[in-house]
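Entry 14. Ran structure prediction on the chain below.
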Amino acid sequence: MTEPSATTSSPRVRAAVVGTGGITTGAHLPAIAALADQVELVAAVDVAPERLAAFRSRAAAEAGAEVTGYTDLAAMLEAERPGLVLLGTPPSLHHGQALAALRAGAWVWCEKPLCLSLAEFDELAAAEREGGPYVAVVAQHRYGSGTVHARELLESGELGAPRVAHCQTTWYRDTAYYSVPWRGRWATEGGGPTMGHGIHQTDLLLHLLGDWVEIRALAARLVHDVESEDVSTALVRFANGAVATVVNSVLSPDEVSRIRIDCADATVELTHLYGHRNEDWVYTPRPGLQDEERIKRWRTPAADLPSSHTAQLAGVLAAMRSGERPPVGGADARRTLEFNAALYKAAFTGLPVKAGEITPDDPYYRAMHGDHPDWAPAAS
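Output, structure tokens:
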């Protein structure tokens, strides 16, 4: 997998970041610096002046960028007219900020989750225009040569028909983690580990296996004093006939992110935590399969590119140059959000949920808790 490159005649995209906390400084800024021939960071927005000042200094040191600071998004959009806005703010702010950027004519690349409900997603989709601006979600695990290679093998049938899959995001978060006011609350985080942690692995599972058709689920609040769940599990049926288990947890001392897909001729497995390289992917042939050349092809991706924000940002910039919808946007991004809404509905109602079932008249369309009396906040 190779990253798109800008031609010398292509002007650099003027970009702005909104929110200058850990994800922006640790992931967005290095991605912008790595692609400095294609994108120019011109502005940053943050309500905390001290944090904003620190980011501006870091941007100058790491990306050679003279960044103008703002404490108000609307003022920045009016003054700078950026072509691309990168959102690294808490989840409850994403919808309103993305909508403002789209209406100002800027493309948007937003940290997960893009928004807190299908209703919010559809409002953002309505604000997009043919040829751009578009909005896309950060889903860096789709990127990297290991994922590209695995998806090509699965789609071509090289591994045989997918049959059984496992998707695991078993992490650990202590009480101090939930002392941050917006965490663990439906109105500000949108849900628990299903939305805030496991969404990356779930998205990758759907990216590899395609459309899901039915889900059954459980959710529980076992340890933390939060509104949302701290663990969820699901059984999923895919359109291609495969069945899968999905586990999301913040109660697991041995932290791991894992996807395993058992196909007719091989098992493909990815084990990592927050990012992966080629060596994190393992291919195991079925017993009796002795085609060494075929097995070698499975285990030898054409490139060696780690998953990263940089890899995905390159794709977003390429889409901007061509006026096409960027990766992980539109119906593709909605599918993952719908999956989470369906997981919550299945868990809270105890009933199976089918794809497409959650329509605008369904309470789970407006909020992931679906106004369920055992889960919705009292004020809902």
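Confidence is low (pLDDT under 50) at residues 1-8. Will compare against last week's run tomorrow.
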